[in-house]
Amino acid sequence: MGVDHRKAAVFGGALALRLLLSVLFPSLPDLLTGRVEVSTPVTSFKRLQEGLFLYMRNVSPYDGGVFHQAPLLLPLFSLLPNAQSHPLPTALFYSMIDLVNANALVAISDSGQAVSGRFYSALRKHIRWDGVSIAAWFLFNPFTIATCLGRSTGVFTTTGILYAFSSAVTGNSLNAMLSLGLASYLSIYPALLFIPLVLLCYDQRVQKTKVSTGTLPFALQHFAVFLACILGLLGISTLLIGDFYTFISATYGFQLLVPDLTPNVGLWWYFFIEIFDSFREFFLGVFWLHLAAYMGGLTVRLRRQPLFVLTSLLGIFAIFKPYPSISDASLYFALLPLYRHLFPLMRYTFFAISALLYATLLGPAFYHLWIYAGSGNANFFYAITLVWSLGLSILLADTIFAALRDEWEYDNPELRGKEVRQV
Amino acid sequence: MAIRDIVANPSLLPVLGLSAETRDQCMKLLAVLDPTADLSDDPQERALVASREQKQLFALLARLRGQNRDAIVRVRETKQSTAEARQEIDRLHLQLQNLYYEQRHLTGEIAACESYDHKYRSLPLIPLEEFLALHPEHQQSDEHELMIARINHEHAEREKLEQARQELLKRKQALIAENNKRKEDLASLDQDLERFIDVGYTHVAMTAKNDPQTSPQTVSDHTMTTTTPTPRLPPPEKPEAIRTRFKVIAAFWAVIIFLGFPIWWKTTSIYRASLPVPDMIDWADGKTCRPVFPLEIRVETPSLPDVDAQNLLRSTQHTLDDLNEFSAHHLRLKLSNEDPDQPPAADAADTALTVRLLPQDDLASPRAALHHDTTQLDVFYPPSQIPPPSASNSPLSTFIADELQLLFAEEKAIIAQVLSDNNIPGAPTSPDLAESVTRRLRRSMKYADTYHLAFSLFTPGASPSSWDIQAAVHDYITPVLDAFSPISNFTVDTQVQLYATSSPTAPPPEYDETHSAWTLNKDDLSAFINAAEWPLSPSIGPGPTINFILYIPSPSQSPLVVKDSLATSWIIPQWGGVFLLNPPNHPTHLTKETLGPAFMTFSHQLLTLLGAPSTPPPLPLRLQTLTRIRAASLLLSASSTMGSLARLTESLPQIPIPATVATSVSTTLSHLSSACDHLRHGQFQAALASARVAEGEAERSFFEKSMVGQMYFPDEHKVAVYLPLLGPVGVPLIVGLLKEVKKVVSAWKERRRR
């Protein structure tokens, strides 16, 4: 029961820290809610409150043109007391969500799927952290804490994704599909995770039952479940809102067409401010395809490690999705320690971490210079977001390199420990 | 030398003989005739002898002549044969020469061949005896064949040797490479061994260690014997790895081809709605519509019998037609006695003028009077002047025709001007009239759908600070605006500006003793408005602004007038009007009555600025004229806009044409044709309404925003748009694809070779 004690301590500490922060600094949540790094137009808590206000007064929440989040969040939040007058219940709720996410992480880690799968078993298995350490790393990550205090609704997507993963690695493929359906319903891009996730489920199934049916029927079955889940959620939303097209265009249309160019830590906003209007649609397509194109290549190349494909895709989303925030980065960072055994193979860790720290520290400063002090301009902040993306990209490329290296050594045991050069 | 020695030809000898004979005969004759010889002979006999001798001489001469001729002919023949013979000889001589040359050349060649030193002679062949020993079958062959055989033998030997040399060279290269590799191995071996030792193992190969001074050959021998050679190259890729790579590249390219290209095609293709370009060009060139202006003039003859009236009408129409030189603009008289009581309904607005013929007894000649508030012309005539039915012309009809012609002269000139500005031939107008018309057109504002009128009160001091502007505008301006409402829309703004000083650069007014007034120089009027400081907005909304400035001079400079003319108002072309109001005893409030003259002037200025003609004086007539002018100019301007749009879309094939533009164009064209029809039927109000719609739509389609945006975007700029992002993304993809394709092609070739 020692492990359980540790887990309880970590979870309790994380909960206490969050509540303490919001009690000691009552203005902190509101400050974080307003930060562009924490809340994007599609995850902002302020916008959610606006939608909630309209919803409570029986007005279509999308009428104001401010709220762009999934309609099912509204009844959920209408159960909570007003966040303005009673901030504690909301804080408690968000903290609980974080704990739930951490719990899913523990499950993923404990399954050991990260180090050995159906086709493949990492060589440095012994170098790894246990589930509680990974949960602690996630729970005490400042990015996670900031997201939690900023009450970004992105955490629900995170929950969906993490539960999809944990269900998949524990062999519960139906639950995985339902969770992924929820995540895709909340924000579209998790749907891109479907194929690697199905492969992960399939590998688990084969590993457990030792019966290998065809991949395709399995995938189709699960796709049907996935689709049914999304359609069910959309159906409920339609019942809730009434006008199907209004809410589709206000939520998914908004996420796909990126009309709000509020600055964020991503790469899209500046580009689409500058682009000639006649090319806007074309480059929207290019950017989305760029985001989607990695899925096929990575899945094929790292077929033996589907969970790693999922992790890397989350990293790619954190860089290239239209409205990224630090909550996306924190999800990627949460999954990275599962691959502790790859760390010795990474080459640019220092550089990547310094770039990320640099961007983290200078980003708010440059944003202040631009927006409030007026002594800088948009390029200041954009340069920092470029550095941030660069740091993430280096980290991502480095981990993928390490994973490939690991696979290569697995295939060529006689060459273990040799210098390699990329050609 | 006697001649006989030279001439030996037998054919010439008779000639010589005959000539000698002739000479003798001559001598003989001479002797006979010699007076000194013998005088004793009978002269008669002598004469007889002489004549006989002479006859003989003549006979001889005749023969001689014939023979001479023969001789000459023969000489000629001889010459010819000589020349032929000569030619023959020359030819033969030349042949001989050639033969000589040939002979010499051949001798030279033979000598060269004989003295040629061939390589084979110097070839270091094996000696004959040895060769014969090797190949005894050549024992019997002659020397030549023997030599050939020996040379062939030598060639074969040498080729064999060369091959051997090449192989040796290759072996040498391989050995050098091997040597280098061994050296490297040796170097790495050192490290390996050190590591080996560090780990703590002992090994039999210890002897091979730490011996870098020994020659590479021995060391490599050592390694060969003691350790298995370590492969430096990575192991060959497994087929699954190759297949995986192929799949990865295929996955990326599938996204590009099946999603990327359709998106590119869909989002960057330019939508070009089809436009009726030929129609538009035709409109612009004036081929579709020739604006005509048939003005209908109603003639009322309450006191005339119908027959007389018809007659008068006909003759007047004749006179009018004779007078008119401008076919597009003509007057049509119409008798309206049929129902004088019933007010004409629809056509009333389009009736240009009503002529009422009234008899008056005490007149010597006809007299015309215009009503000031209606479109009516009263013509008073002495009853005696009613033309008899038979008369084709009468003073009365001539008078009416002249009067009408005069009334519409200016309108005709303006329309001619407008048409000729658009390259439609108009009527010749007198230069004076054309000049005044051009000046008037230059002064008036450009046509707009909406005008903003801004009335401003400026005063250099603190008073007057208020004016009764609402009432003044209502009384003086609103009626005009109402009258103009079919032509344009108007908004009215007013402002009062106190302490409005004139600009420092403007010359101050001077005091004129004779008129006891302050005067402004006429040339300085343009500087009167202090454009830098007075808040006169150039545009209040869409559409031009017409400014009217009421200036109250300060009490110290009152009254203020323009020098010489003593006028108090002037017009600023295409901008507005100014009025200097000098109210008595400087009130703080300007009443409607005080403002009256100023606003009267303003309404006149407004008419001028809006382009109303100066004649004929009654306002309704001027408005009607303006209606016609505006209809014509709008029609033409919308047509030319259509033409410009058509040319624009044809010359820039990459600009998009949204569907709204196509709709606008078709609306424009339909309204243009309806306007043209209305004009032809003399319905000018309807024509103006259609032309306004057409103009508005034409402008909207021409200045469509999405078209203008693309207009300045040439194709080469697209490179700059695509390349910065797609270039870096595309290069690895394309290189990967090329590598893969190369590999597939080489594998295919390999398979074919096998």
What does this structure look like?
The complex is a heterodimer of chains A (423) and B (754). Chain A is built from 18 helices and no strands. Chain A has 423 residues and is mainly alpha-helical. Chain A has one domain. The termini of chain A are far apart. Chain B starts with a helix and ends with a helix. The longest helix of chain B is centred in the N-terminal third of the chain and has 73 residues. Chain B contains 20 helices and 15 strands. In chain B, α9 packs across α16, α14 packs parallel to α15 and α16 packs parallel to α18. In chain B, a hairpin with a 4-residue loop joins β9 and β10. Chain B is 56% helix and 11% strand. Chains A and B meet through α14 of A and α8 and α20 of B. Chain A: It is found in: Endoplasmic reticulum membrane. Chain A: Belongs to the PIGU family.
What's the topology here?
The complex is a heterodimer of chains A (423) and B (754).
Chain A: H1 2-24, H2 28-34, H3 45-56, H4 73-79, H5 87-111, H6 131-139, H7 142-149, H8 154-169, H9 173-186, H10 194-209, H11 215-241, H12 244-257, H13 268-274, H14 280-301, H15 306-320, H16 326-335, H17 349-373, H18 378-411
Chain B: H1 3-6, H2 13-33, H3 43-115, H4 119-122, H5 128-134, H6 143-199, H7 216-226, H8 239-268, H9 277-284, E1 293-300, H10 306-323, E2 329-335, E3 351-359, E4 367-370, E5 376-381, H11 395-407, H12 409-421, H13 431-443, E6 450-458, E7 466-467, H14 469-484, E8 489-497, E9 510-512, E10 517-520, E11 545-551, E12 560-562, E13 569-572, E14 576-580, E15 589-590, H15 592-609, H16 619-651, H17 659-680, H18 684-702, H19 705-711, H20 715-753
Parallel strand pairs in B: 1-2, 1-3, 3-5, 6-8, 6-11, 7-15, 10-12, 11-14
Antiparallel strand pairs in B: 4-5, 9-10, 13-14
Shape annotation of chain B: flat
Structural shape of chain A: globular
β-strand amount of chain A: under 5%
Gap between N and C termini of chain B: 112 Å
Proportion of residues in helical segments of chain B = 55-70%
Count of alpha/pi helices of chain A: 18
Strand content of chain B: 5-15%
- Say what oligomer this is: heterodimer
Number of strands of chain B: 15
Main sheet specs of chain B: 5 strands, mixed
* Mean pLDDT metric of chain A: 89
Which two chains form the greatest contact, residue counts included?
A-B, 24 and 28 residues
Helix content of chain A: 55-70%
CATH class of the largest domain in chain B: Alpha Beta
Structural class of chain A: mainly alpha
- The name CATH uses for the topology of the largest domain in chain B is Collagenase (Catalytic Domain)
How many strand segments of chain A? 0
